[in-house]
Amino acid sequence: MLSGRTPFWITLGGLLLTLTAGFVNAIGFLGVHHHGLSHVTGQVTLVSIRLAEGDGAEALRGVLVGVWFFVGAVLSGVIIQRSELSRRGRRYGVAMGVESALLFLGAGLLIQGNERGEYLAAMACGLQNAMASSYSGAVLRTTHMTGVVTDLGILIGHWLRREPLEVQRLRLLVVLLAGFLTGGALGAVSFQTVGAWSLGVPAAVMLVAGAAFTIASHRATSTQPSP
Question: 0.85 cut: is pTM over it?
Answer without folding.
Answer: yes
